[in-house]
Specification:
There is one protein chain. The chain is mainly beta. It has one helix and nine strands; from the N terminus they run H-E-E-E-E-E-E-E-E-E. It has one helix spanning about 5-25; strands at about 40-45, 50-55, 65-70, 70-80, 95-100, 115, 120-125, 135-140, 140. The strands form two sheets. A five-stranded mixed beta sheet has the order 1-2-7-6-9, with no helix packed on it.
Length: about 140
């Protein structure tokens, strides 16, 4: 069961994301750089794990950096424009991004797996069975079938 510290950490993370969103330049101004990929987080019981799905259409997997510790996952990278020239109309956001996902339970970053397929990055984070080592781990993307 999550403790008071876990709830405070999650609240702090949510407030920081809200502040980040409020300070971003609106997309219609034409000045905005970068984008904020959409994220789904699913908690399963059998096996006990989190599945984090990040929508990254047009992002080269070589640009992705994925790190985790026992409480959070960070996915960072960059999306470059597919075309060169002067844009007549532009809605697709490009540039660097970083998303930080805070978990309600401690996870085992050493057991994490990642797969990038059809523009979706799926990172699977097992729930920690015992006290984690509190170390930061880099997660490699496995080959999709």
């Amino acid at each position: 069961m999550p403790g008071k510290k876990d709830h405070l950490d999650r609240l702090q993370s949510e407030v920081q994301e809200l502040i980040d969103e409020l300070w971003q330049v609106p997309r219609f101004s034409g000045l905005r750089r970068g984008f904020r990929p959409q994220v789904d987080v699913i908690r399963t019981d059998d096996p006990p794990e989190y599945r984090v799905v990040v929508e990254l259409a047009g992002v080269d997997s070589e640009t992705l950096r994925i790190f985790a510790d026992d409480q959070a996952l960070v996915v960072a990278g960059s999306r470059s424009p597919a075309w060169r020239g002067r844009f007549f109309h532009m809605e697709i956001e490009h540039g660097p991004f970083q998303r930080r996902i805070q978990f309600a339970e401690q996870v085992d970053p050493a057991g994490a797996r990642a797969e990038y397929k059809r523009g979706l990055l799926t990172v699977t984070m097992p729930i920690a069975e015992r006290e984690p080592a509190h170390e930061k781990v880099s997660i490699k993307i496995g080959r999709s079938k």
